[in-house]
Amino acid sequence: MKAKPAEVILSIATLGLGIATAIGTAQLPSAGGYAKIGPNVAPAVIAGGLILLGCWLLYEALYGGWRNAVADDPAVRGEHAFQASAFLWVTAGIVLQIVLIHSAGFLLAQAALFACVARGFGSKKLPRDFAIGLVLGLAVFLFFVKFLNVNLPAGWLKPILGGAGI
User: Fold this and answer.
1) pTM of this prediction exceeds 0.70
2) pLDDT for position 29
3) How does DSSP assign the chain, residue by residue?
């Protein structure tokens, strides 16, 4: 059976990415601190995984093609046709989050993102989705601020969050 060029190219690209990552990892210091784990451990694991995956994909591409490959036709895969409105809602949410995070704060930016993504997935209840996004954003905000000691921008809610001792 003849190998598909796209599968061979993607396999070689994955293998090349793994090799490039390994070369970059070799230039990182390996001395670990208290935990005896240096900054090169995680990239080395990723490089090894990419090299193994690239070799495996290349082997399958050259010997009968990728197993259980996803069909090219979206209808065969059971997917819906591209919906521009959903794409635009999710994109608007991401842009809104980027614009709002430093001025309005993390909580409101996350709530806006959640509401826009929910709308993109078909929800029609914008106030409810915004409230859910606000609660989830508050949980994430508290986790980062209280447990990880990472300052996230409070923005317009700083008087409320600051008054609550956050």
Assistant:
1) no
2) 82
3) -PPPHHHHHHHHHHHHHHHHHHHHHHTS-----TTS--TTHHHHHHHHHHHHHHHHHHHHHHTTS-TTPPPS-HHHHTPPPP-HHHHHHHHHHHHHHHHHTTTT-HHHHHHHHHHHHHHHTT---HHHHHHHHHHHHHHHHHIIIIIS------GGGHHHHHHTT-
